């Protein structure tokens, strides 16, 4: 997910593409097989012609450094336990990262920044993510994105974002019984996520809360639904991490605050030393 910035150019959603996703969902609440089945269905999605062409072309042509890899080349589903109480929402897979490995933030520079922070605050079993079978486990935490296919120049259109939203809404509904907090990485993800939260039953204030690093909003749940604490965090793109706009400490602070609200630290958040302060 290198250098992801998103695209704010107007791009009307293609209703035919949205219909293609809804047809794959079958039921508004998500498939009967739960998140496992949802993830399986996502990997077969071909609703966005431009992204299907791109992800498959990248998988065919490859980057020289990964010539011996068989690229995933398909939509990348969410990663993490099905009863997660904390969800991270990014932007879209990187062409030679998740589009190669088939797992969120795995095999790219953004993941090299994200996973050490998750490990430092006790949410991941290891600080590195190199392949889908590297043994990495997330604790109480799941990672997903509002666009599941790698976009050209790391820039999905708003139409593609809106087409893919139904997958995110369904994922949120399936996670709702346990989900208590969300960290949204970047403004594009924020804009994509707020309507998805509303569609999944939470009450999103109007006007919608603005994105910012450190932004925080509590969304009341619908009937029978728990409230959701939503945190904003700069995206872990190289644009932000190479320039120091987002530091490891800043990321750890947001992650640990969100994990605390999600109930993942029953004895309180980890101290700075435990959280790897100083790296
Ligand atoms: S971006 Fe989403 S909706 Fe579009 S083809 Fe990929 S999985 Fe399907």
Automatic annotation (TrEMBL):
It comes from the Bacteria. The keyword DNA damage applies. InterPro entries: UDG_Type-4/5 (IPR051536), UdgB-like (IPR044147), Uracil-DNA_glycosylase-like (IPR005122), Uracil-DNA_glycosylase-like_sf (IPR036895). Keywords: 4Fe-4S, DNA damage, DNA repair, Hydrolase, Iron, Iron-sulfur, Metal-binding. SUPFAM superfamilies: Uracil-DNA glycosylase-like. The keyword Translocase does not apply. Residues 77-255 form the Uracil-DNA glycosylase-like domain. Belongs to the uracil-DNA glycosylase (UDG) superfamily. Type 5 (UDGb) family. This is Type-5 uracil-DNA glycosylase.
């Amino acid at each position: 997910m290198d250098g992801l910035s998103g695209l704010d150019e107007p791009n009307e959603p293609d209703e035919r593409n949205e219909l293609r996703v809804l047809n794959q969902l079958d039921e508004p609440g998500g498939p009967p097989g739960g998140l496992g089945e949802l993830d399986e269905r996502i990997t077969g999605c071909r609703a966005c012609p431009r992204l299907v062409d791109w992800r498959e072309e990248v998988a065919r042509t490859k980057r020289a450094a990964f010539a011996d890899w068989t690229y995933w080349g398909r939509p990348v589903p969410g990663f993490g336990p099905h009863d997660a109480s904390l969800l991270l929402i990014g932007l879209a897979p990187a062409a030679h990262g998740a589009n190669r490995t088939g797992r969120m933030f795995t095999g790219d520079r953004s993941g090299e920044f994200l996973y050490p922070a998750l490990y430092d605050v006790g949410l991941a079993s290891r600080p590195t993510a190199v392949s889908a079978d590297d043994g990495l486990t997330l604790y109480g935490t799941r990672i997903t994105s509002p666009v599941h296919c790698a976009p050209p120049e790391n820039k999905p259109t708003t139409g593609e974002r809106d087409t893919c939203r139904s997958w995110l809404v369904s994922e949120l509904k399936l996670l709702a019984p346990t989900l208590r907090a969300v960290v949204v990485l970047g403004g594009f993800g924020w804009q994509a996520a707020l309507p998805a939260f509303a569609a999944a039953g939470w009450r999103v204030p109007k006007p919608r809360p603005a994105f910012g690093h450190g932004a925080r909003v509590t969304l009341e749940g619908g009937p029978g639904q728990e409230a959701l604490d939503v945190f904003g965090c700069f995206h872990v793109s190289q644009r932000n991490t190479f320039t120091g706009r987002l530091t490891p400490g800043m990321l750890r602070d947001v992650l640990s605050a969100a994990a605390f609200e999600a109930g993942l630290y029953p004895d309180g958040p980890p101290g700075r030393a435990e959280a790897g302060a100083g790296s």
